[in-house]
Amino acid sequence: MEAANVPARTKLLQAHGLILLRRMLLIREFDARAGELLASGEIMGEIHQYIGQEAVAVGVLAGAGAEALVGSTHRGHGHLLARGCAPRPMMAELYGKASGYCKGKGGSMHITSLEHGMLGANAILGASAAIAVGAAFAEKTTQSSRVAVAFFGDGAANQGVLHESMNLAAVWKLPVLFVCENNQYAISLRADHGLSVRDVSSRAAAYGFDGRSVDGMDVLTVYEATCEALRRMRTSSLPFLLEAKTYRYHGHFSAEAAILKHPYRPEDEESVWQRRDPIARLRGELLAHGFVPQEELDALHGDVRAEVEDAVVFARQSPPPSADEAFTDVYATEVAGLPDGVR
Amino acid sequence: MEAANVPARTKLLQAHGLILLRRMLLIREFDARAGELLASGEIMGEIHQYIGQEAVAVGVLAGAGAEALVGSTHRGHGHLLARGCAPRPMMAELYGKASGYCKGKGGSMHITSLEHGMLGANAILGASAAIAVGAAFAEKTTQSSRVAVAFFGDGAANQGVLHESMNLAAVWKLPVLFVCENNQYAISLRADHGLSVRDVSSRAAAYGFDGRSVDGMDVLTVYEATCEALRRMRTSSLPFLLEAKTYRYHGHFSAEAAILKHPYRPEDEESVWQRRDPIARLRGELLAHGFVPQEELDALHGDVRAEVEDAVVFARQSPPPSADEAFTDVYATEVAGLPDGVR
Amino acid sequence: MPRIRFAQALHDALAEEMRRDASVIVLGEDVRCGLMGITTGLVDEFGPERVLDTPISEAGFTALAIGAAIRGLRPVVEYQISALPYVAMDQLVNQAAKLRYMTGGQIRIPMVVRVTMSGAAGGLGAQHSDHNYPMLAHMGLKTIMPSSPADAKGLLKSAVRDDDPVIVYEDAKCLSVRGEVPEGDYATPLGRAEVVRNGGAVTIVAIGHMVHEALRASELLDREGIAAEIVDARCVLPLDTHTVLASVARTGRLVVADDSNSFCGFAAEVAARVAGEGFGLLRAPIIRCARPTVPVPFSPPLESAILPSAAGVVRAARQPMEAHMPAGKGADGCT
Amino acid sequence: MPRIRFAQALHDALAEEMRRDASVIVLGEDVRCGLMGITTGLVDEFGPERVLDTPISEAGFTALAIGAAIRGLRPVVEYQISALPYVAMDQLVNQAAKLRYMTGGQIRIPMVVRVTMSGAAGGLGAQHSDHNYPMLAHMGLKTIMPSSPADAKGLLKSAVRDDDPVIVYEDAKCLSVRGEVPEGDYATPLGRAEVVRNGGAVTIVAIGHMVHEALRASELLDREGIAAEIVDARCVLPLDTHTVLASVARTGRLVVADDSNSFCGFAAEVAARVAGEGFGLLRAPIIRCARPTVPVPFSPPLESAILPSAAGVVRAARQPMEAHMPAGKGADGCT
Ligand SMILES: Cc1ncc(C[n+]2csc(CCOP(=O)(O)OP(=O)(O)O)c2C)c(N)n1
Ligand SMILES: Cc1ncc(C[n+]2csc(CCOP(=O)(O)OP(=O)(O)O)c2C)c(N)n1
Ligand SMILES: [Mg+2]
Ligand SMILES: [Mg+2]
Question: Which conformational region is residue B50 in: left (phi greater than 0), alpha (psi within -120 to 50 degrees), or beta?
Fold first, then answer.
């Protein structure tokens, strides 16, 4: 953010700072708590914490607007919360309860709330971005003005389907904002060991549209860049590729530390990024400008914690699905012999 | 070719013109004859004629040298002949005879001669280019200096696996010359309806290496560009992407005209490209420079025709494989129960 | 009833469904010109917005269709050759087949994938001659393969109207078959097999062009005094076990004639069901007449050595008739 | 004999083969650190040129391995999760499985693909819990799935030494199993099943972790007076029909316990073979205890409702024992 922009930034800060902060905090607290619950064995499976990357989901989805259709990833909690999905059915989903967004059938990697415009979190890298292109296609066909946001990671950037999807979105002029969350690693693989270019955004040129890399540790920068990208998309009728440079503070998945013998990241790397923590930064700016008093920030933090705890209680108290639920929702149109007939 | 280069071109013409011409003629005559044989029902299936594109295979493979390992496509006859594979076992393969390069098991789309460094023609778009990257990897690992040439079309350029392969070849610094034969169409799809960029070669930048588009209707240009690309690869230790703009004179596959009701190409398009015919051009230059007298050129043409006819006779007279051959060559290491056991 | 070609029946089904429902779109490689005549002309009536030629990006455009279906369109995707499910396999079996379930029923994916030119059209070699429907059905996708023009039209219409992904295999060897097709609008329900010939000695369950091979075989078998009953399965999944078992109850003998690879193929599934649920009805071994699990060779004599045919069905059908006959092997893999 | 974990046995096999043969290389995602401990440490001994972390490009690096194998290396590719065959399906079933044949035997592809964490490790949901070996075996790829550490080591070594592509499924539920492993160099031949428990009443053919479920089930069955004989198939393809038939000859009854989807799955193939070649040996219906063909739900109670287990095997094994018992359905899909 250059000096000349400071007034614009200050305006943004005043107008949206608190709500952006609240969303980032909610993501952080939710995923911290989910990590504890998994570690204690209270919930099952694996979760991919979004902690450290909050500015990306929150900045992009605030900038893209409530109408945007979103393709999420295996690391999807942040996208859902940034979009305003409720912690209760999210947490219940992690518990595999019937009150979860997906009735407990999805789990952490698949939490979806279609009514929020979330097309689905997806455990296959690149898959949801490709599907989001289809949503944009449908919107364009039906003359809606909704855009699609297609999230993917620095690792997923090397999946073939993304190449196909970017080309398709370009030749058919679809309103897709591709967002690469470059958190520097694909599990243990350093981004620059997997990527043949420094900036994923530079690949946009291979499809004839524009791209840009921004500081993903600053929510206002991400927000602004998203707004600007959407403007560009409207004038060009082309997709856009936004890359946010960011960092995940935790292991790739929460059980990682227990599994790996040697850390794959240099010891001091996290602390370098932590110094640019998006939440601390935004909080600091809000305080410095006197837009929000310390007490209100503290209260906000307390609120968010309570909201997460409430979600935990809700999830704990929700009943598990009944065993027959394993055999429902397989097909939308019933046909004799399914799903029962295939057993 | 700019004026300043004329002397270089003339040298090239004198040194290699005749042999390049011979190869191009052989491709044209072979594929013309194969088309007739298919139309008359003497051979089965489908062939994809290389006619019109001869300068690409001949120029690239002459430039790449006899040691290069080649991944070919569904339109592979040209690559094989340019490489010096023999018309007899090629034609026999089209007849499905035991004397074919693949004992008749492969057919037109799969003719392969490993001893010529041909890794295989392939009926799946993009597949052989990806496999060629592996050959380059093996060469690099074993400290050989052989490079791989990976052919693909303008249509195949939008296959995901090519993206993955180019990225892999770049991050692992593999000696791969990617060659896009842009013949303007993928079956009925105009290249610019499928591609989001005008020049496929511009995509090289998305992987951090160099690319260049050249006139694929001029064999000397292609030859020179290939030599230059290889020099660049040696100094950069990176792959290179060469795009040759060319044109196929015939239908996508030989039976096309009988199947399609409406032509998908503008009526006069072929004649525009024919005016740049690579064979006519090279022949004209050889004559104009007086490097080869007309009689020798005529004799050459006669020779080539005779060679093709000899291949037809050879193929006709070759015995068909015996029925048990259907069950051999499935596995290299015999294991009890295979392939017999799986029937 | 008018007699039309199978490919024409598919065309008519698409055209009628597109007329009926504006959300139906067609996309795939070369669908505007339509190499097999199936989609030919649709673009003239429905315009380039509803009939889309795609780049050669099967994974990408299949995913696109999934996303479009989630958002309310009814895309009909064409795969021009039967190898294309391989390059889009994740989108088919791990996305389209599962997203509804994973989301607890929030999502519907009313999409059709037409795999045309499936199987060995003849002389196309190893990579263009597979019939891979068992792989998709294995993963729970509704998967059908009609054998007659009437079923091609009626089943494709049902597929378009179905709210789930449905994979339609168009057997290359059926595309030019002619047959009567009912006039007016009709849809043939998924999941129902049909007895296409009655006979008391042996049940032959067949699918796709193997129905025609079985019919040819049955005439030869008649001469040997073996009256074959032929069941056209029509759908791979759901599989109409009921009709199969009812026939086996009459005949006591079962042959399955299927042109997919034998190993874990369609014939294996039919056999396993009957060996489980219909064991008490069986009087003789179940015989599979399917492809040996080897790639398809190009050379015509080799190709015919491995593909199941009427002659193979005849050999297969003799076996359960001959008690204690040692299992002899036909070169075409019908043991 | 030392007792080691299954994952360790796999590690040892790789390390020993890499020591023995310099052309063996290992590549895949995160193989240098080795998330499951299988490839951990190999890079220290063999260096980064032979142990390669790949970008997330499964189709690309599988094709790369094919090309490298054609040129004489022996790549061992790791797929970190069992969903990855889908994104590289063309490379597996249409390239690796066919190139040798298509070229008339000019090419050898001595490559191993290790699909690790296969099946439902627990709580990973629909897209990370498949066991898709039937799809690859259907297309003729040599496909194996050991259940014990000894076999894991011995079969993986055979796979590495084999001159064809071999797909090794490493069942997530077996990775922490401990067992004795012979000292010194040994390789277990592909294509041979093993009788791991003798019993005269019913044959249970199992594979992967279902062998352990079957063993547990057999103890419960013993109490009911049902002596189960258990055959560990070990290899999906080639399938050792001989050992299966020999066991059925003793027992007259067959249950197949398999954790792949039931439809056109491994159990279907075993059942179909026995219903064909071993019909005369059978005294009762063949019962499949396999996965119902639905996606795997995340919720633990739902997950256990669909996955086959010892209890399911017990229920399955009772059925052929009770003549004329109407087929009742267990919730876990074991009919
Ligand atoms: C196609 C595919 N390949 C591999 C995996 C296994 N996997 C899960 S997450 C992951 C790393 C992803 O890295 P990135 O895209 O950068 O996202 P991040 O986890 O860093 O958010 C891998 C390899 C997968 N889920 N899908
Ligand atoms: C992955 C894949 N998709 C589709 C096809 C069917 N097909 C065969 S050739 C072809 C067009 C190829 O165009 P291009 O790559 O430009 O090569 P050209 O035929 O022009 O030489 C298509 C679509 C295929 N063989 N493989
Ligand atoms: Mg990352
Ligand atoms: Mg082309």
Answer: alpha
**What totals of helices (H) and strands (E) does chain A contain, helices first?**
12, 8
Is A185:A273 a contact under the CB 8 Å cutoff? no
Question: Which regions of chain D carry the CATH code 3.40.50.970?
Answer: 3-180
Written as six digits, the tokens of B257 are 């005209």
Which ligand approaches the C-alpha of residue B184 most closely?
4
**Is the Cβ pair A342, D302 closer than 8 Å?**
no
CATH number of D194-321: 3.40.50.920
Ligand 1 centroid distance, CA of A93 (Å): 21
pTM: 0.97
- Please choose, from the candidates D73, D76, D68, D69, the residue with its C-alpha nearest in 3D space to the C-alpha of residue D52: D76
Give yes or no for C188 touching A (CB within 8 A).
no
- Tokens (6 digits) for A86: 């409720």
List, as one string, the DSSP characters of B7-54.
Answer: HHHHHHHHHHHHHHHHHHHHHHHHHHHHHHHHHTTSS-S-----TT-H
3-class SS at D258?
strand
**Closest residue by Cα to residue A1 from A223, A204, A188:** A223
Contact B168 D57 (CB under 8 A): yes
Which residue in the list C11, C29, C78, C128 is annotated as catalytic?
C128
| CA D43/CA D31 separation, integer angstroms | 8
Q: Which of D264, D283, D291 to mutate to test the interface with C (most CBs of C within 10 A)?
A: D264
Check D138 against C86: CB less than 8 A apart: no
Identify the residue among D293, D302, D335 best suited for mutation to test binding to A, counting A beta carbons within 10 A and taking the highest.
D302
Which residues are CB-contacts of B260 (< 8 A; sequence separation ≥ 6)? B188, B251, C33, C35
What is the whole-number distance in angstroms between the Cα of residue A155 and the centre of ligand 2?
28
pLDDT per residue, tens digit, chain C (335 aa), is: 899 999 999 999 999 999 999 999 999 999 999 999 999 999 999 999 999 999 999 999 999 999 999 999 999 999 999 999 999 999 999 999 999 999 999 999 999 999 999 999 999 999 999 999 999 999 999 999 999 999 999 999 999 999 999 999 999 999 999 999 999 999 999 999 999 999 999 999 999 999 999 999 999 999 999 999 999 999 999 999 999 999 999 999 999 999 999 999 999 999 999 999 999 999 999 999 999 999 999 999 999 999 999 999 999 999 999 854 444 433 444 54
How many whole angstroms separate alpha carbon C235 and alpha carbon C155?
Answer: 9
| Ramachandran area for residue C259 (φ above 0: left; ψ -120 to 50: alpha; else beta) | alpha
Residue A143's region, left for phi above 0, alpha for psi from -120 to 50, else beta, is left
Chain C residues closer than 8 Å to B323 by CB? 301-302, 305, 331
Of A156, A169, A148, which is closest to residue A126 (Cα–Cα)?
Answer: A156
- Asked if B167 and A193 come within 8 Å (Cβ–Cβ), the reply is no
Ligand 2 residue neighbourhood (C-beta within 6 Å): B 74-75, 123-125, 153-156, 159, 183, 185-187, 252; C 29, 56, 58, 80-81, 84, 87
| Residues, Cβ < 5 Å to ion ligand 4 | B 153-155, 183, 186
Chain B CB contacts of C123 under 8 Å are: 44-46, 96, 107
For chain C, list the contacting chains (3+ Cβ pairs, <8 Å): A, B, D
Kindly state the tokens that stand for B56.
Answer: 């690409």
**Residue D45 among the catalytic residues:** no
D58 is catalytic: yes
CB contact under 8 A, B130 and D164: no
List, by residue range, all CATH 3.40.50.920 domains of chain C.
Answer: 194-321
Measured over the CA atoms of residue A209, residue A210, residue A215 and residue A219, the dihedral's sign is negative
Distance CA D129, CA A59 (A): 33
**CATH class of the domain at C3-180:** alpha beta
